[in-house]
């Protein structure tokens, strides 16, 4: 079974000539809708953390969500001069205090992390009570997921895993699901509202 580090290394090699490959560098419906959702549900001047922010100076959804202050974290630094507050690190161990961010977003990154449970636990820890988690992700059919499992594991050439609608929702039991948009082409955007009074 391929490891997370091996996948990350392969992904960086694919990007040796073009760091923007697979990143949200220009207008596409997912990036636009995600940015608008963040503007809508976060307070003006609120602080939003982008987990797995990638290699762009500023992803397009951050340009759209221009009413919030952006922080981003990614395992890759690569000397990119980012136009937001950046830290090198991983979703599973977030170097931020509890109850700090108004919003946390995973923009096509949740299917790349090493441990989804730990990443979501950390996202919730750093999120303020009443904060929102924004997810833009591929969501596959139950059948596609079953077929992957039957092939011996939840991964393909570029991803450690895939989510179906039910597996995605299972991670957020105890959250209020306030928005869901099916963009087609197996892509969805979710907004979950935190409620720390509900025990997960
Ligand atoms: C498809 S890119 C998306 C980048 C950016 N969100 C965008 O849309 O332009 C996925 C990103 O997830 C990052 N990633 C992989 N494992 C991670 C982890 N454990 N914690 C945080 N980010 C991770 C990768 O380094 C990569 O930059």
How would you sum up this structure, described in words?
It is built from six helices and seven strands. By secondary structure, it is α/β, with parallel strands linked by helices. It has one domain: Rossmann fold. The chain has a seven-stranded mixed β-sheet with strand order 3-2-1-4-5-7-6. Strand 1, helix 3 and strand 2 form a beta-alpha-beta unit. The longest helix has 13 residues. The mean pLDDT is 93.
CATH class: Alpha Beta
At the third CATH level, what is the topology name?
Rossmann fold
CATH architecture: 3-Layer(aba) Sandwich
What is the count of structural domains? 1
Q: CATH H level: which superfamily? A: Vaccinia Virus protein VP39
Mean pLDDT: 93
Radius of gyration: 16 Å
Amino- and carboxy-terminal Cα gap: 30 Å
Name the bound molecules. S-adenosylmethionine
Record the strand order, biggest sheet: 3-2-1-4-5-7-6
Strand content: 25-35%
The topology string of helices and strands comes to HHEHEEEHEHHEE
Supply database-style keywords.
6 helices; 200 residues; Rossmann fold; binds S-adenosylmethionine; alpha/beta; single chain; 7-stranded mixed beta sheet
Q: What's this, in brief?
A:
The protein is of the alpha/beta class. It contains 6 helices and 7 strands; from the N terminus they run ααβαβββαβααββ. β1, α3 (60-64) and β2 form a beta-alpha-beta unit.
């Amino acid at each position: 079974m391929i490891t997370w580090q091996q996948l990350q290394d392969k992904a960086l090699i694919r990007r040796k000539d073009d760091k923007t490959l697979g990143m949200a560098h220009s207008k596409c419906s997912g990036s636009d809708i995600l940015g608008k959702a963040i503007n809508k549900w976060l307070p003006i001047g609120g602080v939003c953390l982008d987990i797995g922010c990638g290699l762009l100076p500023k992803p397009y959804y951050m340009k759209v969500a221009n009413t919030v202050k952006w922080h981003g974290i990614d395992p890759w630094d690569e000397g990119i001069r980012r136009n937001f507050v950046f830290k090198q690190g991983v979703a599973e161990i977030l170097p931020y205090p509890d109850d700090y961010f108004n919003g946390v977003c995973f923009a096509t990154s949740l299917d790349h992390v090493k441990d989804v449970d730990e990443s979501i636990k950390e996202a919730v820890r750093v999120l303020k009570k009443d904060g929102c988690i924004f997810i833009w992700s591929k969501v596959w059919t139950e059948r596609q997921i079953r077929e992957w499992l039957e092939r011996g594991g939840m991964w393909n050439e570029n991803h450690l895993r895939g989510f179906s609608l039910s597996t995605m929702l299972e991670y957020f039991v105890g959250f209020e699901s306030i928005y869901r948009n099916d963009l087609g082409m197996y892509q969805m955007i979710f907004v979950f509202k935190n409620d720390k009074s509900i025990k997960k």
